[in-house]
Design a protein that fits this description.
This protein is mainly α. About 70% of the residues lie in helices and about 0% in strands. It has eleven helices and no strands. α6 packs across α8. The radius of gyration is 20 Å and the shape is elongated. The two termini are about 35 Å apart. This is TetR/AcrR family transcriptional regulator. Pfam families: TetR_C_40, TetR_N. Keywords: DNA-binding.
Length: about 220
């Protein structure tokens, strides 16, 4: 019993150390500071340098994991918030509208996404595979008209990145209205009529204050 208790404490301590390292890497990514020594990362995480190598072989591996975990976390949250939506066009739109609002409400997480650039479209984690799935389901349901799935996904990723960059550059811009306008344009490009695209983008979203507590 004592051995199991001690083992549990060690596992929890290792998990806390790993979480601290990933969090430090995500902060550095958000600041655009990846060319830093491992010592600086461990100081930011408030752990010893030796502990770093118990979890990661290099800082490049740490930064890759930090991006993947941020993308996967946000993607999982979008899954939860769209799980009960039957219309795949609405599910796609809601995910994009919420992600658009993320840029202003959670700028650090937004900057982690932006640090990916168009590699975001090719990631196996987070938003890209989910957006691809949503588009495919909408096509199969006859809601979207898409000739090239990879191109549609790249257009979606580019729109996410461009919107985020604009919102950071123009802090007074209305993020909700901008996100909805971009979503409406994407829906139009995927064959949704103008009046239907406008209707979809006027639908209520989940309470963003509740979403904020989940993000936090």
């Amino acid at each position: 019993m004592a051995e199991r208790t001690a083992s549990g404490r060690v596992d929890r301590r290792r998990a806390r150390t790993r979480t601290a390292l990933v969090g430090a890497a995500q902060r550095l990514l958000a600041e655009g500071r990846t060319d830093v020594p491992i010592l600086e990362i461990t100081e930011l995480a408030d752990i010893g340098v030796g502990s770093f190598y118990n979890h990661f072989d290099s800082k490049e591996e740490l930064f890759r994991v930090a991006v993947e975990e941020a993308l996967e976390w946000w993607g999982t949250l979008m899954d939860r918030l769209t799980a009960d939506i039957e219309d795949p066009a609405v599910a796609f739109a809601q995910s994009f509208r919420l992600t658009g609002r993320l840029h202003r409400r959670h700028p650090e997480l937004s900057r982690v996404l932006l640090s990916q650039g168009l590699e975001l479209a090719h990631s196996q984690h987070g938003l890209a595979p989910r957006a691809f799935h949503d588009i495919r389901v909408a096509v199969d349901a006859g809601r979207f008209e898409v000739e090239d799935m990879d191109l549609a996904l790249t257009m979606t990723a580019a729109a996410v990145l461009a919107l985020g960059s604009l919102l950071h550059a123009q802090p007074d811009r209305d993020d909700a209205r901008s996100a909805d306008l971009v979503t409406r344009s994407l829906l139009r490009q995927f064959g949704i009529p103008a009046d239907e695209a406008a209707r979809i983008c006027s639908l209520d979203l989940p309470d963003l204050d509740v979403v904020d507590t989940l993000v936090g």
